[in-house]
Structure formats: structure tokens, C-alpha cells
Design the sequence.
């Protein structure tokens, strides 16, 4: 877990090295892809934990939680390359300029999300739907915590 | 592993139920997001295993492999909803009509990819770069196996 948190935190450092050559529009595409795919999996969990509990399936819930955790652990910070503060990937980026300047604030939301996402995978594997619903809520709060601070609202 | 293969295979069955209400354009977006995010992680692995072996990092390689495996295990077959054989998600879908008719062929490529992707995560965790490079090649072949059969070439 500590290692995973470290990787997530380091994600932002990595941006300076390996991915520095990446085109801003590609970096924006890949991060939009990661968030979009996590949102599909959050939606599946909402479906089976909130909207229609009768549809809860342990294996499918664990698969969704694992996808969210693995994406959270993949060092997406590396995708916030210089020049990707503006521009169009799959669509226009909604990132706020603060994400590129407020390193401490970014680290806080990144580590909080990463911690809860990894806990989500752990709880999902245990198969207790009520516990998973509670942890799903905690993950959602960390998503919102970052969106409120570093993502512009849709126009 | 068996369970994971089963989930992947069942992904296509799931399309008939939970995700039937999903708009085709959303389903196309989510599957494009999944493939796009996997390609970012395959690119990271290529960078540290093929292009610049000096940049190999066990934790980053494992994180990339885990993201690929978790996405492979997430039941993306559910995203091939009726009506998503044509249309625009983040971009126009390149899926061939055969994917919606050749259930046996689809099952074969899906299970082959899923098997090698899970093996990728296992090998990456062990930390042997040479073994990971070999497994990375096997995963790439299963990607190509599906692309050749079920994805149209770029225009």
C-alpha cells in the first residue's frame, strides 16, 4: 500500500522525465481516458450498490473496483505534462491552472483518492456489499474533492 | 485466474442485461477510453523494456501491467451494446460488424488477451525485466490478433 501511494505521489514527479516528450494533446487524451474509464466502473458500482442492490455481483464489483484502483495506481500525474494546462484531447481539458502550481494541494487530493481507491479494491474482494457501499461513498468524496479544486465546471 | 477469465468471457453476455440501457455513444466512449488507457500503459512498458531498458523500474512496470490486467478483467464486452456497431464516441468507432456476429471468434481473442494480460501482471510483480519483455510481446500479439480480426484500419 505504501509503495502504491508512493507511486501515485511520484506520478507528478515522473512528468518531468519519461513522459516529457509526450505531446500535450496525447497526455490530455490519456488522462481523459483514465478518468472516463474509472467513471464507467464507478457507475457500475453505483448501479449494483445504490440504484439496484439486487444486481450486486461480487466478482463484477471486485473487477470494477480493481480497475479503479489500478488506474489510480498508474501514475497519471505523469500525464500533466508542461503545455497540457490548455488544449483538446478527446475534448477540451477542464483542468484548472492551479493543478500545475499547487503541488501540495494536488499531492493531498491525489494521495487521498489513491488511498480510498485501494481500500475500495480491498473491500470489494471481501464481498460485503454494505461495506463496499460505504467505501464507494468515500471514493466518490475524493473524486469530488479533486474536481471541486482542480476541474472547471462544464459550460 | 479462472474466475477472471470467466468474467472477461461473460462480459459479452452482460451486454444483454445491466448495460442495455447505455447509449451506444457512451458505450463507444467507454470502450475507446479503456483501450486508450491500456495503450498508454503498453507504451510505458515498451519504453522501459524495448526503447530504453535503462529506464526500467519494477514498481512502475508493475503499476502499468496491473492497469492493463484490471482493465482487461473489467468486462468491456458489456460495452458492445446493440447499436454500437456504428457511431461516434470520442471518435468514430473502428469496430467491424463481425464482432457482433462472430461470438466464437470474439470469445477466443477476448480470452487470449485476458489470459496474457493477467500473466503480464504476474510477471511484472516478479521483477524480471527479461521475462516481462517476453510477456509484453505475447500481450501485444493478442492485441494485434483482435485488431486484425475485429478493428478496421485507420483511414
Sequence:
Amino acid at each position: 500500500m505504501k509503495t502504491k501511494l508512493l507511486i501515485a505521489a511520484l506520478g507528478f514527479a515522473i512528468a518531468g522525465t519519461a513522459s516529457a516528450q509526450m505531446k500535450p494533446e496525447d497526455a490530455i487524451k490519456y488522462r481523459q481516458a483514465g478518468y472516463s474509464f474509472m467513471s464507467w466502473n464507478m457507475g457500475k458500482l453505483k448501479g449494483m450498490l445504490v440504484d439496484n442492490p439486487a444486481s450486486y455481483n461480487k466478482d463484477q464489483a471486485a473487477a470494477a473496483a480493481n480497475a479503479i484502483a489500478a488506474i489510480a495506481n498508474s501514475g497519471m500525474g505523469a500525464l500533466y505534462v508542461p503545455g497540457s494546462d490548455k488544449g483538446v484531447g478527446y475534448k477540451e481539458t477542464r483542468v484548472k491552472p492551479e493543478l500545475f502550481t499547487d503541488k501540495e494541494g494536488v499531492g493531498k487530493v491525489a494521495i487521498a483518492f489513491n488511498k480510498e481507491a485501494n481500500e475500495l479494491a480491498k473491500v470489494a474482494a471481501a464481498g460485503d456489499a454494505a461495506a463496499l457501499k460505504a467505501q464507494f461513498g468515500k471514493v466518490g468524496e475524493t473524486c469530488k474533492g479533486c474536481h471541486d479544486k482542480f476541474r472547471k465546471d462544464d459550460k
